[in-house]
Design brief:
Blueprint lengths: L1 H45 L5 E8 L4 E9 L3 E7 L4 E7 L5 E4 L2 E2 L3 H13 L1
């Protein structure tokens, strides 16, 4: 009888912790989305951009909030930022002078850019 009671208590504890982790993960994603929305508005104003689109992602593995910006001022360019650190993690512009890098790794094509950015924006 005592074993069943202890097992029941343990099971309830485990289930409640899993629920808390899911809620915490959801809260972090929601906060990241709000921070990214604010970040994109500031970025658009700072660089006087007419068009700016963004994708936000909370990376659980790295515990980081990323925003991938795509703007259209002179050339179509992308930049990847960690919002909480206000740190640029990558930049991609293929205009007259192609520039592409992600975390200090240079890339030579949009395909390479996508390959380097994908793990940060999907985990």
């Amino acid at each position: 009888m005592m074993k069943k009671t202890l097992l029941s208590i343990l099971l309830i504890f485990i289930v409640s912790m899993v629920g808390c982790n899911k809620k915490e993960g959801y809260d972090l994603q929601e906060k990241c989305g709000k921070r990214c929305e604010e970040f994109s508005k500031n970025y658009k104003e700072k660089y006087s951009l007419n068009k700016l689109s963004y994708t936000s992602h909370y990376n659980k593995k790295l515990n980081k909030c990323f925003i991938l910006l795509e703007s259209f001022k002179i050339y179509n360019h992308h930049s990847l930022w960690e919002v909480n650190e206000n740190k640029e993690y990558g930049f991609n512009e293929f205009g007259n002078i192609p520039t592409c890098w992600v975390i200090e790794k240079k890339c030579k094509s949009t395909e390479e850019w996508d390959t380097l950015v994908r793990p940060l924006m999907t985990e």
